[in-house]
Amino acid sequence: MKKILIVFGLLIGTFAWAEPHSLDVIAQNNSPHPTYPPAQHKSTVDTAVDDVLNLILNQGFAGAIIVVLLGWTWKESKANRATQKEHFEKFVEISQECSGHMAAVSARLENIERELEQAKQLEMITATRKG
Questions:
Q1: What tens-digit pLDDT sequence spans the chain (131 residues)?
Q2: Nearest-angstrom CA–CA distance, 14 and 24
Q3: pLDDT (0 to 100) of residue 11
Q4: Closest Cα to residue 70, out of 85, 53, 83, 87?
Q5: Residue-by-residue DSSP string for the chain
Q6: How far is CA 29 from CA 21, 34, 37, 76, in A?
Q7: Do 6 and 12 contact (CB within 8 A), yes or no?
Q8: How confident is the model over 31-62, as pLDDT tens digits?
Q9: Is the dihedral of CA 28, 30, 32, 35 positive or negative?
Q10: Does the global pTM surpass 0.90?
Q11: Widest Cα–Cα separation across the chain
Q12: How far is C-alpha 99 from the geometric centre of its chain's CA atoms?
């Protein structure tokens, strides 16, 4: 938890001190007509990976943060899946063990119930003979 807070603190601090680049471009351009970046080429299946890599590299520090967080998330989720699998297996074992114990307790309770019924009947028989 501390690691997550440290990472988010660093991210917030970095973004707080970073200058907005879009304002610099607008301030330097005194032209009443905005200039737009040139049109980009169409993406295909063959260039999809290159396009994604270029997009991340063009983002600079933010792209690096995205890559680091993606790697960290993937690693943590893999560890969590392994832990969940272990815990589920333990749960299944404990559940089976509890089911066995509950069956034994149920059988004992049925035996006790039969003995009580027999004791009641015996008491009723002896009470009617005395009375």
A1: 677 767 666 666 565 555 555 555 555 556 666 666 666 667 677 788 888 778 777 888 787 888 889 999 999 999 999 999 999 999 999 999 999 999 999 999 999 999 999 999 999 998 888 86
A2: 18
A3: 60
A4: 53
A5: -HHHHHHHHHHHHHHHHSPPHHHHHHHH---SSPP-PPPPPPP-TTTHHHHHHHHHHHTTHHHHHHHHHHHHHHHHHHHHHHHHHHHHHHHHHHHHHHHHHHHHHHHHHHHHHHHHHHHHHHHHHHHHHH-
A6: 13, 8, 14, 46
A7: no
A8: 666 666 666 667 677 788 888 778 777 888 78
A9: negative
A10: no
A11: 119
A12: 29
Round to whole Å and give the CA distance between 120 and 70: 72
Q: Is 6 exposed, middle or buried (0-12, 13-18, 19+ CB in 10 A)?
A: exposed
Q: Locate 50 and state its tokens.
A: 């290159």
Q: Give the integer Cα–Cα distance in Å for 94 and 27.
A: 68
Six-digit token pair at 84?
Answer: 């969940």
The amino acid that residue 113 corresponds to is E
